[in-house]
Design brief:
This protein is of the alpha+beta class. It folds into 3 domains: 161 residues, D-Maltodextrin-Binding Protein, domain 2 (3-Layer(aba) Sandwich), CATH 3.40.190.10; 107 residues, Dipeptide-binding Protein, Domain 1 (Dipeptide-binding Protein, domain 1), CATH 3.90.76; 212 residues, Dipeptide-binding Protein, domain 3, CATH 3.10.105.10. It is built from 16 helices and 21 strands. The longest helix has 18 residues.
């Protein structure tokens, strides 16, 4: 309780400091986490994507029903047997520093994604080898081979265009003073406290923007986040706890928006990432298979999420056309789990499970711990801040970790970076590498026909669901609560908060 009081006090103090700005022209959004760096080339977190949506436009975007639509690019077509993507760019667009957003800046940004040390976008752009400037408002993206997920990748950070002038001037500090071409421009960031953005007067779509300022306030405790919304210190919160959904619906001052997400939650095992991979879970897939068999996904959903989420066992939910229906969720089987453990000669294996220190994540970990315990597992839970969890994942300083991915429109975006041999270690934290999986991933990327791609994903699923580097557990619903004075918000399956069209009445 002491921690909750401190968090509430901190948010109320921040609100007091910002009282002058917090008017009808200011949108205050409570976030479940504090993002990592605000540089689209190296950023990793889902919550960072929410913040990017306010200030960093992309070449293309999606609709709520997942169609790809123009943003900084107005039209496009493929040439050369799908190995060249030609994009026409929106004219009259400027970055927050007043420089023009043109073909040269698009080339600069895409090559930055490809070549910058530490880039987490490189693998997302696949076989992109060069960018050719046709004229000031036309570019050609030249590929080594066809790449089916390319447009979908450009709807996210891989398609964000930054100011070359600012990026060159700031160097590796660009994330501390980011400059893009979105509706709001960066003002300040106070770690673990707030991020402030002011309206960009020269935004190309300025008529859709009705706020002078957006303030993001990270509040990890979901109960405190909701309390601040109810107290009028926030206008909107993301990722409301499922257990708070009924209370929010009954509060006449609030309204709720929900949508099925593209995201998934998984239990990752350190297989080959440093010294900590040399544990029984990392070295013997039978332990991972037994752990999977010990978990009742539907019971987990009911106990922790009030039945609001969707149990899953793959990188796409069972409702997705990309779900491999021939490999459904297996029922819990304690007897089989114990038999697998006995076969390994380790009937009571022990491991530490790292989990983010949010209430829902910790509750989920505790339920998993109890279920696994019935099969003979001894799981110890270590709760840490999100930044510490991400750091441990990259360094391989973990045995098991409960993590999540916010999801992408194309299945490649939910899969390649996490199980591919050539994927960035910041994403493939297990360091899983299976040449057969790699071959199928590459084949799926070059296949244009959906049925042909699906055949490759079926082969991938056969390997992943046997090796289990990641044990997929559930697909969340995005749960948003907001003041009933806030109008114009439209939920999207990617969970991002797009400010266009939003206003306080």
């Amino acid at each position: 309780m002491f921690r909750k009081h401190i968090l509430a006090l901190a948010v109320l103090l921040a609100a007091t400091v910002l009282a002058g700005a917090a008017s009808a022209q200011t949108l205050r959004i409570g976030l479940a986490d504090d993002p990592d760096i605000l540089d689209p080339t190296i950023a990793r977190t889902y919550v960072g994507r929410i913040v990017f949506a306010a200030f960093c436009d992309k070449l293309v975007d999606i609709t709520p029903d997942l169609k790809i639509v123009p943003q900084l690019a107005t039209e496009w077509h493929y040439e050369d047997d799908n190995k060249t993507l030609v994009m026409k760019l929106r004219q009259g667009v400027t970055f927050h520093d007043g420089t023009p957003m043109d073909a040269a800046s698009v080339k600069y940004s895409l090559l930055r994604h490809l070549t910058m040390p530490g880039s987490t976008r490189k693998a997302e752009l696949g076989p992109l080898k060069s960018v050719e400037i046709v004229d000031d408002h036309t570019v050609k993206l030249m590929l080594d081979k066809p790449f089916a997920p390319l447009l979908a990748q450009l709807t996210d950070r891989a398609g964000m265009i930054v100011s070359p002038k600012a990026a060159e001037a700031e160097g590796d500090k660009f994330g501390e003073h980011p400059v893009c071409a979105g509706p709001f421009k960066f003002v300040e960031r106070v770690a673990q406290d707030r991020m402030v953005f002011d309206r960009f007067a020269d935004y190309w779509n300025k008529d859709a923007i009705h706020f002078d300022r957006v303030i993001f306030l990270p509040i990890p405790d979901s109960t405190v986040r909701l309390a601040n919304l109810q107290a009028g210190q926030l206008d909107m919160i993301e990722r409301m706890a499922a257990t708070d959904l009924d209370a929010a619906k009954k509060d006449s001052r609030l309204k709720v928006a929900t949508i099925t997400s593209l995201a998934y939650e998984d239990l990752a095992t350190n297989i080959n990432n440093g010294e900590q991979s040399k544990n029984p879970f990392g070295q013997d897939k039978r332990l991972r298979q037994a752990l999977d068999l010990s978990i009742d996904r539907e019971a987990l959903n009911q106990v922790v999420f009030n039945g609001e989420f969707a149990p899953g066992n793959q990188w796409d939910p069972p409702s997705s056309p990309w779900y491999v229906k021939s490999m459904p969720i297996q029922p819990r089987d304690i007897t089989k789990a114990k038999a697998l453990l006995a076969a390994t000669g380790m009937p009571h294996p022990s491991a530490t499970l790292i989990v983010e220190n949010t209430p829902e994540q910790q509750r989920a970990a505790q339920v998993i711990q109890a279920m696994a315990g019935e099969a003979g597992f001894d799981l110890k839970i270590q709760a840490v801040e999100l930044a510490a969890q991400l750091n441990a994942e990259v360094k391989g300083d973990y045995q098991l970790v409960l993590g999540n991915w916010s999801g992408r429109v194309d299945p490649d975006g939910n899969l390649y970076n996490f199980v591919g041999c050539k994927a960035p270690p910041a994403f493939n934290i297990t360091h899983y590498c299976n040449p057969d999986v790699d071959a199928e991933l590459d084949a799926a990327r070059t296949a244009v026909d959906p049925e042909e791609r699906m055949a490759h994903y079926e082969k991938i699923a056969a390997h992943i669901l046997d090796d289990r580097p990641l044990i997929y557990l559930w697909h969340p619903q995005w749960l948003f609560a907001m003041s009933n004075k806030l109008a114009g918000y439209v939920p999207y399956p990617d969970g991002l908060i797009r400010p266009q069209g939003m206003r306080l009445q």
